[in-house]
Design goal:
Elements (H helix, E strand, L loop, with lengths): L2 H34 L1 H14 L9 H14 L3 H30 L2 H4 L4 H23 L1 H9 L5 H23 L3 H27 L11 H35 L2 H17 L1 H19 L3 H38 L7 H8 L8 H9 L4 H25 L3 H25 L4 H24 L7 H23 L2 H15 L6
């Protein structure tokens, strides 16, 4: 399978899996609340929130391993693949045990820490036992996916995730039929997915390297070699995660809980629509790493110029497509009482366009020295948090739109004016004026025109009519603006990848 086929399949399956997951949550949550009650169902979220901080134990090795596996496989260095795989099993296995012990220890004190009834203490402890056991196996098998993705099977785990979401539906159906307890429901949800992923992952790894060993083996020298890169990745991840986790806490300190609720509304919708750039990054990273390892300038420039153009079109379509109907979405989602958030959400959603650099980010992180990126990311995120703090008394939750935009502008300025042209020898001015600016201005224009008209008193009808008009108008203009080879690419993508028709 060609690189473009692999990337296209990876992006499609990732997006499909995300949408299915969201659809499952939309349907399952009210059913489970009706079955167990709001308080008991909330115990699952509470148990997961206790474990969420354990993800930091990864220390950036997930991205590091993906890069090094891709590099070694590109050079057919199977011996180093085996060394890294054994070392990773040892590392992640140790983390899994530590994670499990921490959660097991916390389980003894949940009655003292949280405001729960004696009956809920029993349930919460059982849920934590499940999470602790799952942590051991989940961490141990982490490197399985990293090796598979490094071998450019970028759609493998997206397909697994998609089918996993279908299995969740099966578990939900069985829960309703046999009246499972909340603990039995969650155990089925966790362990069915774990068994399914593990079996398929082992089979796939055996295809990549038939004689590979699954026994732990720690290579001290190799660990030292990968550690500096991992620490830089970890620093960026920690800063990003810390800044996002800190914002609702700062709101809670300086405002009332209603502002925190507003923040959660804004950020949840933004996050739901903002996964496209990340999906593209995940899909393309192994191929880019291979190109960097082999010094394949042709592939790197194709990702930088063509990949960015296509991503700009897709992200512009999603961003402005949503903004064109955002008042109707908000009304149907939460009602008129939250309409005051719409202008600020529209403003904040423009930042989704910043994810057009996903391909360029993949090129950057495929390199070896990312210390400069780490330092500037630290500066931009710290600035964002400081600005957010000082704006809270004036704008409350809406401060996220201003501080988030400032952070995004700082990072994009750094990339466009310095890193891309100076470090990567990429013509950033060409990318901005040929790709980003035209499609952004076109999206703004179409959105403004559609927002000027009221089609119906029904928000559902408005949503359907304006959404359809946006798709038709935007797609038509894009078709006229792009080159013939781009039209052929999108035609192939729709026909072969979306409609699943055989290639000629």
């Amino acid at each position: 399978m060609s690189t473009i086929n692999k990337i296209a399949d990876g992006v499609i399956w990732t997006i499909a899996s995300k949408f299915l997951s969201a659809a499952y949550a939309f349907v399952a949550v009210p059913i489970l609340i009706g079955l167990y009650g709001k308080a008991d169902y909330g115990l699952i979220g509470l148990a997961l929130s206790i474990n969420i901080y354990m993800t930091l134990l990864d220390l950036g090795f997930s991205n590091t391993n993906l890069r090094y596996f891709s590099n070694y496989l590109a050079k057919n260095d199977i011996e180093n693949v085996r060394r890294l795989f054994g070392t990773s099993i040892t590392f992640y296995g140790s983390i899994g045990i530590i994670n499990a012990l921490i959660i097991f220890g916390i389980s003894f004190f949940v009655g003292d820490i949280f405001q729960v009834t004696p009956e809920q203490v029993v349930i919460l402890r059982s849920l934590l036992y499940i999470i602790a056991l799952n942590a051991i196996f989940n961490w141990y098998t982490s490197c399985f996916g990293q090796l598979i993705q490094g071998a450019e099977y970028v759609d493998f785990f997206s397909k697994i995730s998609f089918i996993g979401n279908l299995l969740n539906v099966v578990v939900l159906a069985l829960t309703l039929i046999f009246n499972f307890s909340i603990v039995e429901y969650y155990a089925g949800l966790v362990f069915l997915g774990l068994i399914y992923r593990t079996i398929l992952s082992i089979r796939k790894i055996k295809v990549i390297i038939p004689d590979i060993s699954f026994r732990p083996h720690f290579d001290k020298n190799l660990f030292k070699e990968t550690l500096p890169y991992s620490m830089n990745i970890f620093s960026v991840s920690l800063l990003t995660w810390g800044a996002l986790q800190l914002q609702p806490i700062l709101l809670g300190i300086r405002c009332n809980s209603s502002e925190v609720a507003d923040y959660n509304i804004i950020f949840s919708i933004y996050s739901f629509l903002g996964f496209i750039g990340g999906s593209f990054n995940s899909a393309i990273f192994p191929s880019v790493t291979k190109a960097v390892a082999l010094h394949n300038r042709e592939v790197i420039e194709r990702v930088a110029y063509q990949g960015t153009k296509y991503l700009v079109i897709v992200i512009s379509f999603v961003t402005f497509g949503y903004i064109s109907v955002s008042p109707d979405v908000m009304h149907m989602y939460l009602g008129d009482s939250f309409m005051y958030l719409v202008p600020w959400m529209d403003f904040y959603f423009i930042n989704l366009l910043g994810s057009h650099n996903a391909g360029m980010s993949a090129i950057i992180y495929a390199g070896t020295d990312i210390r400069l990126i780490t330092r500037y990311s630290a500066f931009s995120y710290i600035t964002m948090v400081i600005v957010f703090w000082f704006l809270i008394p004036y704008y409350g939750a809406r401060s996220i739109a201003i501080s988030g935009t400032l952070c995004n502008l700082m990072q994009m300025s750094f990339y466009y004016f310095y890193y891309w042209p100076k470090k990567l020898q990429i013509n950033s001015r060409f990318i901005f004026f040929r790709d980003l600016l035209p499609f952004m201005m076109m999206g703004i224009l179409v959105t403004c025109v559609l927002r000027m008209f009221t089609v119906s008193d029904s928000h559902l009808i408005q949503f359907l009519v304006k959404g359809t008009l946006f798709v038709l108008i935007f797609s038509s203009i894009v078709y006229m603006m792009i080159e013939r080879k781009d039209r052929e690419f999108f035609g192939w993508f729709v026909k072969v990848k979306l409609l699943r028709r055989p290639e000629a």
